[in-house]
Amino acid sequence: MAFYTLTPQQHAQFDADGFIIVQDFLNAEEIDLLRKIAKADHAFQQEAIDRHDASGNLTRLVLQNELRDDVYSAIARSTRVVETMASLLGGEVYHYHHKMILKEPRVGGAWEWHQDYGYWYNNGCLFPDMLSVLIAVDRASKANGCLQVLRGSHKMGRIEHGRFGDQTGADPERVKHAMERLELVHCEMEPGTGLFFH
User: Fold this and answer.
1) How far is C-alpha 193 from the chain's CA centre?
2) Are 21 and 189 in contact (CB under 8 A)?
3) In angstroms, what CA-CA distances link 54 with 59, 112, 162?
4) Angle at 105 between CA 168 and CA 67, to 5 degrees
5) Is the Cβ–Cβ distance between 96 and 131 less than 8 Å?
6) Contacts for 111 with CB less than 8 Å, ≥ 6 apart
7) pTM, whole model, 2 decimals?
8) What is the torsional sign of CA 162, 61, 86, 32?
9) What residues contact residue 17 under an 8 Å CB cut-off, 6+ apart?
10) Which candidate, 141, 158, 149, 146, places its Cα nearest to that of 182?
11) Of all helices (H) and strands (E), which one includes residue 179?
12) pLDDT in tens, 6-56
């Protein structure tokens, strides 16, 4: 996978907003191949775990802490992903984990409002210099429950987290106040689009 170069405008947007959306981060051929492999990969499907949201609905995902010899790890360790991450964070990066959400159409559960550092802090991460990338495998829209972010919320500092269903989520009272002050952004994305968020 080739190197992707961020523009100064993308860096400025990331610093101000806490996220950037990169169109065609993976091209159509790459994302089609990933989709076909994931749908045919029975071992991968058997690794899926279920997590209930606060309403009791199920969210299915496969989470891998190790980098393996497979397409999912190849994307996570690719020059395109690693160098983009290093560019945004301003230094060397390491792999924490990667996952794929297996969202069921019309019935899949939600992922509760959270900050990754809200619980990664308790896993020994000293500083909040962390970055995630979400790559859309299928089209993500408001209608099918795309990821939502609060613009500028990366500047709020760490929020206390607790258990909601089987998930770890941010303090609902704090989220409510944040939503009153910060813009809610629905991250609608076509397949192959990358969302980098602090």
Assistant:
1) 12
2) yes
3) 11, 7, 11
4) 55
5) no
6) 53, 59, 101, 147, 167
7) 0.90
8) negative
9) 151, 152
10) 149
11) helix 172-181
12) 999 999 999 999 999 999 999 999 999 999 999 899 888 888 888 777 677
Using the CB atoms, write b or e for 33-43: b if 16+ within 10 Å: ebeeebeeeee
- Quick one: tokens of 158? 């760490």
> Rounded to 5, what percent of the chain is helix, strand, coil?
35, 20, 45
Give the pLDDT confidence of 143-197 residue by residue, as tens digits.
888 999 999 999 999 999 888 878 888 999 999 999 999 999 999 999 999 999 9
Query: What is residue 191's three-state secondary structure?
Result: coil
Give the N- to C-terminal CA distance of the chain in Å, as an integer. Answer: 23
Beta strand ranges found along the chain (DSSP E) = 19-22, 49-52, 58-64, 98-101, 132-135, 148-150, 161-164, 167-170, 184-186, 194-197
Residue with tokens 């199920």: 58
DSSP result, 27-83:
-HHHHHHHHHHHHH-HHHHHT-EEEE-TTS-EEEEEEESS--SSHHHHHHTSHHHHH
